[in-house]
Design goal:
The complex is a heterodimer of chains A (258) and B (307).
Chain A: E1 3-16, E2 19-25, H1 27-32, E3 38-41, E4 52-55, E5 58-60, E6 65-71, H2 75-81, E7 87-94, E8 106-112, H3 117-125, E9 130-137, H4 146-152, E10 155-160, E11 167-168, H5 171-181, E12 186-190, H6 193-205, E13 209-213, E14 229-234, E15 237-242, E16 249-251
Parallel strand pairs in A: 8-9, 8-12, 9-10, 10-11, 12-13
Antiparallel strand pairs in A: 1-2, 1-7, 2-6, 3-4, 3-7, 5-6, 13-16, 14-15
Chain B: E1 9-11, E2 14-16, E3 20-22, H1 31-34, E4 44-46, E5 63-66, E6 69-72, H2 81-92, E7 98-103, H3 108-119, E8 125-129, H4 140-143, H5 146-157, E9 164-167, H6 175-184, E10 189-192, E11 196-199, E12 201-202, E13 207-208, E14 214-218, H7 223-234, E15 241-244, H8 250-258, E16 263-266, H9 269-272, H10 276-290
Parallel strand pairs in B: 3-4, 3-16, 4-7, 7-8, 8-9, 9-10, 10-15, 15-16
Antiparallel strand pairs in B: 1-2, 5-6, 6-14, 11-14, 12-13
Helix pairs in contact in B: 3-5, 5-6, 6-7, 8-10
The chains are: A alpha/beta (258), B alpha/beta (307).
The complex binds flavin-adenine dinucleotide (FAD), flavin mononucleotide (FMN) and FE2/S2 (inorganic) cluster.
């Protein structure tokens, strides 16, 4: 259950141009958050009045802290990243979470850009014996948290659009190669919609179950305003479910990708 | 709460414990916010707009943030009035907060049918939404002329067992004549304002942000317009008026009461701060105490224009 909390910022550090990692002390979030959930943060001011949803990237239960990684996009994330100390007003943890199953010995995460961040906590929380992380970024300068991914996954492969780091490829190409050598039991993906749609198609073609973390503009973050619609299958029909409450995580086959 | 101050307000025979009501469409069916706020402390909840049959709503994106406001185009997504009564109303009735059913239709007959169905339910009042800017057929069309308002209000009133609140649109040039038409046709109360039709652009894509192109503006940006309209409406009718539009603090709520609102509705501010309704209730009470008043009635409509 999400709570309205006023929590202390421990630190905010720049990871690369326009990307910051913020550590927040919160016993409640650290002890209850599940991979895939997000926090809805009040940035403040009349140009970023609405709260901004940001995924939980990592949790440190021993220290009672959790991390979020924020990419500056507009005024809200700009304000957020300039907060280095003091308190933040958050609603957390919100949303459902990735399904982790001990039966899955071999898991693969596929992330693109800011979508890579929530996958780190997923990898840490998973008990699987073989974990593969396939991460896609625009260029080498945008690659962040590589060491943390290497510390928790057995295999980490990085693709960049311009080839300035790792392999010059789309991350979906890495996925097709990975499936050739060792078929994962489940794929988890988060990133741009076109990327996830492709990942979902690859998973379906290969008969692998797949979970996707969807993104949508939000109002309330808790299921009351109905703005964060995502078209999903409802039996033979379809309907709009709500990313903040019914998601952000869906089975790839639930989502209507049209 | 102190014992000597009476925050209750009477709207067409329905006694609200306090004048702070949650605006339709911003509070779902109450359940989501019940984890954050004690619903017993809220005067009332106007539920998400209901239609006769289920509506899926508009394509996303359905929201765009603009300076001090938001544009939405939800398109009245809801499960339909019968499902609401069966599955959502029982939860709400566990609380003492008053429940207002907000209804919207494509035809006058649909509004009448919904009012009839709700007559046998436990809702405390009906709010007729003739002002939703986000659906193509009906709805707003009834709300933009005195004749349209008159026709639909008198028809629906015949089917109402509960008091009928008519929710007005700000997308008109003369709110007074619209308010008077609603009163003349038998409305028990009017509420205003619904959202103002607006447009937000993504300059990189050279396209509107909302999939539905246009949307309804709400939030602090609309408050001065809403206040002026509530003032004008309240001064042209004798029935009670519920005021809303951009209320995000107790001071805002007091402004609406001073210009003539017997109760206020809070919408967009809930998204920013879920405890805002309680802060507004407490703030109004302190204000009354500070100014030596014992009841809300002593300040309703007590703002006079300058000479
Ligand atoms: C479930 C979820 C998890 C997210 N996790 C992260 C994360 O871990 N790290 C991160 O950097 N970003 C994340 N985002 C995206 C982040 O919420 C947006 O980048 C941010 O809201 C932009 O706000 P702004 O004021 O800086 O930008 P502006 O462009 O000024 O924002 C204007 C409006 O558009 C909305 N908006 C703009 N872009 C997006 C977007 N991509 N998704 C949703 N709403 C958007 C804003 O919330 C705001 O209402 C996540 C989004 C969702 C829905
Ligand atoms: C997301 C959203 C959905 C809304 N849905 C409805 C609705 O279903 N019926 C209705 O009468 N008004 C609806 N409204 C209008 C509000 O009830 C209210 O009139 C308006 O938002 C102005 O108040 P505010 O500035 O406090 O939000 C909606 C507003 C928002 C922001
Ligand atoms: S953001 Fe309000 S329902 Fe999802």
């Amino acid at each position: 259950m999400g709570k309205l909390l006023n929590e202390q910022i421990v630190s905010t550090q720049m990871l690369c141009k326009d990307v910051f990692i913020m550590t927040i002390r919160s016993e409640y979030v650290a002890s209850t958050a599940k991979p895939g959930q997000f926090v809805n943060i009040r940035c403040g001011g009349l140009d970023a009045m609405l709260r901004r949803p940001i995924s939980i990237c990592d949790v440190n239960k021993a220290q009672n802290t959790f991390d979020i990684v924020i990419q500056v996009k507009g005024s809200g994330t700009q304000k957020l990243c300039s907060m280095c100390q003091g308190a933040v007003d958050i609603m957390a943890p919100l949303g459902n979470s990735f399904m982790l199953d001990d039966k899955h010995k071999n898991i693969c995460v596929v992330g693109g850009g800011i979508g890579t961040f929530p996958l780190l906590y997923l990898l840490k929380a998973s008990q699987s014996t073989n974990k593969t992380a396939l991460l896609g970024f625009r260029s080498g300068e945008a690659v962040v948290l590589e060491d943390k991914f290497r510390a928790t996954a057995n295999t980490v492969e990085i693709a960049t659009d311009d080839g300035s780091y790792g392999k010059k490829a789309f991350v979906t190409e890495l996925l097709e190669e990975t499936i050739q050598s060792q078929k994962p039991d489940i794929i988890y993906t988060c990133g741009p919609a076109i990327m996830m749609r492709k990942v979902a198609a690859i998973a379906q073609k290969n008969g692998i179950s797949c979970q996707v973390s969807m993104e949508q503009r939000m109002g309330c973050g808790i299921g009351a305003c109905l703005v964060c619609a995502c078209k999903t299958q409802k039996g033979d029909d379809w309907g709009f479910s709500h990313v903040c409450k019914d998601g952000p995580v869906y089975w790839s086959t639930e989502v209507c990708w049209d | 709460m102190s014992d000597n101050i009476d925050l209750s307000t009477n709207i067409a025979g329905v006694q609200f414990d306090n004048p702070v009501i949650m605006a339709s469409g911003t509070y779902g069916f109450g359940k989501e916010y019940s984890e954050y706020v004690d619903l017993n402390q809220i005067g009332g909840i106007s539920v998400k707009g209901l239609t006769l049959k289920e509506r899926k709503g508009n394509k996303p994106p359905r929201i765009a943030e603009t300076p001090a406001g938001i544009l939405n185009s939800v398109g009245l997504q809801n499960p339909g009035v019968e499902v609401f009564i069966k599955e959502d109303l029982p939860f709400l009735k566990k609380y003492k907060t008053k429940i207002i059913a907000n209804i919207a239709g494509n035809t006058i007959e649909e509004y009448c049918e919904m009012a009839e169905i709700l007559g046998d339910s436990q809702v405390d009042a009906i709010e007729m939404n003739v002002s939703c800017p986000n659906v193509k057929a009906g709805c707003l069309a009834f709300g933009t002329s005195p004749k349209g308002i008159e026709e639909i209000t008198s028809a629906v009133k015949k089917y109402c067992k509960q008091p009928l609140i008519v929710k007005l649109t700000p997308n008109v040039s003369d709110i007074k004549s619209i308010a008077m038409a609603a009163e003349g046709a038998g409305a028990d109360c009017i509420s205003l304002i619904n959202t103002i039709l607006g447009l937000a652009i993504d300059i990189n894509k050279k396209k509107p942000i909302l999939a539905n192109n246009f949307g309804g503006l709400s939030g602090p940006a609309v408050k001065p317009i809403a206040l002026r309209m509530v003032y004008e409406a309240a001064h042209s009718v004798k029935i009670p008026v519920i005021g809303m539009g951009g209320i995000s603090s107790w001071e805002d709520a007091v402004e609406f009461i001073l210009v003539g609102a017997s109760a206020v509705m809070v919408g967009t501010a809930n998204f920013v701060n879920p405890t805002i309704p309680i802060e507004i209730v407490n703030g109004i009470e302190k204000y009354l105490e500070h100014h030596g008043h014992t009841g809300l009635d002593e300040i309703i409509g007590k703002m006079d224009l300058n000479d």
